[in-house]
Design brief:
The complex is a heterotrimer. Chain A is of the alpha+beta class. Helix content of chain A is 29%, strand content 28%. Chain A has a domain at 35-44 and 73-153. The two termini of chain C are 51 Å apart. The chains are: A alpha+beta, B mainly alpha, C mainly alpha.
């Protein structure tokens, strides 16, 4: 009986801690199996501190260091698939259940009918304090999940823009020169201005 | 933990490999299988290109050695991601120029460039040209990192704007605009001095 | 002027060879990361004075090696930090792209509702 009570208490405490946490489930085994390209980044608080060691303490890095030092964790999962339909929305069910659950508030939910893109931006709050955010972006052949733990605002992200310009670190396969350009293909992280004719909201 | 210990055998990397595709390049295959001599051959084959890109970016020999070595260390860790010989060349050039831009961002001071830094022993340079080339060299090294990158890729590696856009991962218009502005900046500064 | 500048840039930006020992240094760094230290504790169980001699030698080697090992540790720590930093910057870039996506759509929506 005592053992049962102790186990139950431990389970309840774990559940409570999970509910308090801003971390979302980021284990997507089904997506990993089906994807042809994957990006996985998992940086907990310790790793972020280690990363800070490699950012010199200078005037021009002060903003970056300040914003980053407030982060408790940053988790990225991005998957690209060869064909539409290679992944199922149900593969993201545990994630969607979390961000629509208690303590989470989805500020933005965008659906683009023409391109089939969906983007959700959700905040995890405890009363007025931001504990973290999650962004879930899906396209017919791509899924990207961003989970940031810690108090960070969109304004603070804006302050990081100067550090984020320049070439990405992802190394992509070079496009073969004789391959004809598919007008439907878009660069993944294009800085091109949006085409207003194509975007629409529900 | 996000980072893993580096072993002599190239570690499993989140793959960019498409299912069913074959790899060309015997050296690549042997290096991937753990043949260190094959990897050394790959280094010897490409070290000049990588070193040249970095050296021309910074005009600093010891820094060029350090960064060029880092590029090959990163190659060793990322070997599984290399699809072919042409992809290898593309990968090396891209990582080298990115490391230059990133390193420039972290550096707090720029060391003034002197004539001795780039006139190699045994290299003959005509009298009047020495001063002119020295000026051009100094001005290139003083360019902002992103402008310097396009100038190095254009004039050292003979890349077209399309190729530079692929290497750098920038939109084509951005590449053209930065190259144009870099050349204008050089021209204006040369006229002013 | 532009043609002259073109020629000068071509002349200035030329290929350079790294030092002859470059490849060897790269391979040495790769091996240094892959090497694992072997503990010689079995020496302590040898009989007679040879154990003492061996142990003393091991201590000297360890003491001398400790400095090198510490330096290697520092180098390794620096590399881990740089790798973590690179991953952090990549993560921030990806996040920025996603936020910009949301921002663009919201801006379009606001424009249309005017």
């Amino acid at each position: 009986m005592k053992r049962f009570l102790l186990s139950s208490t431990a389970l309840l405490m774990t559940t409570a801690m999970w509910a308090q946490s801003a971390q979302v489930p980021v284990n997507f085994e089904q997506l990993e199996e089906k994807a042809v390209q994957r990006t996985k980044i998992s940086l907990n608080k310790d790793m972020i501190q280690i990363a800070l060691w490699a950012i010199p303490k200078q005037e021009d890095t002060a903003k970056l260091r300040k914003v980053v030092s407030n982060l408790q964790g940053i988790y990225i999962r991005s998957y690209t698939f060869e064909n539409e339909g290679d992944y199922s929305p149900s593969d993201l069910a545990p994630l969607r259940k979390t961000i629509t659950g208690s303590g989470w508030n989805c500020l933005v939910s965008v659906h683009n009918k023409k391109s089939g893109e969906d983007t959700d931006l959700c905040l995890r709050k405890d009363r007025e304090q931001i504990l973290g955010l999650a962004i879930v972006h899906t396209e017919p052949k791509e899924v990207t999940v961003v989970n940031i733990l810690g108090a960070i605002t969109a304004e603070e992200f804006g302050q990081l823009q100067e550090y984020l310009e320049g070439p990405e670190i992802n190394i992509e396969k070079p496009k073969p020169k004789d391959k004809p350009k598919d007008p439907k293909d878009k660069p993944r992280n294009s800085k091109d201005k949006p085409d207003n004719d194509k975007l629409e909201q529900d | 933990m996000a980072t893993e210990a580096i072993a002599l055998q190239p570690p499993e990397i989140e793959g960019w490999t498409q299912p069913g595709e074959s790899r060309s390049g015997e050296m690549l295959a042997r290096a991937l299988a753990g043949d260190s001599e094959a990897f050394a051959l790959i280094v010897r084959q490409h070290q000049r290109m990588v070193f040249s890109v970095v050296w021309n970016f910074f005009s600093d020999r010891s820094l060029a050695e350090d960064i060029a070595q880092d590029v090959f260390l990163q190659l060793f860790q990322s070997l599984r991601a290399i699809e072919s010989d042409s992809h290898l060349l593309f990968w090396l050039r891209r990582v080298a120029i990115r490391k230059c831009i990133d390193h420039h961002r972290w550096r707090s001071k720029r060391r003034p460039v002197s004539l001795d830094d780039w006139i190699e022993e045994g290299e003959t340079v005509e009298g009047p040209d020495v001063l002119a080339l020295d000026k051009v060299r100094t001005l290139v090294t003083a360019l902002p990192a992103k402008f310097r990158a396009v100038v190095v890729l254009r004039y050292l590696e003979d890349q077209t704007p399309d190729e530079m856009a692929e290497t750098l991962g920038w939109p084509l218009n951005t590449v053209k605009s930065r190259l144009h502005r870099a050349l204008k900046m050089l021209k204006d500064r040369m006229s002013a001095e | 002027m532009m043609e002259n500048l073109d020629k000068q840039l071509k002349r200035v930006l030329t290929a350079k060879d790294p030092p002859p020992e470059f490849t060897a240094e790269v391979m040495a760094r790769i091996r240094a990361k892959g090497a694992e230290p072997r503990a010689g504790w079995w020496l302590l169980f040898m009989h007679g004075h040879r154990a003492v001699l061996a142990f003393g030698t091991a201590c000297l080697v360890l003491a001398g090696g400790a400095g090198a090992a510490y330096h290697q540790h520092q180098v390794e720590q620096q590399r881990r930090a740089e790798a973590a930093r690179d991953q952090l910057m990549q993560a921030l870039r990806i996040t920025s792209v996603q936020l910009n996506r949301v921002g663009r759509v919201l801006a379009v929506g606001r424009e249309r509702s005017k």
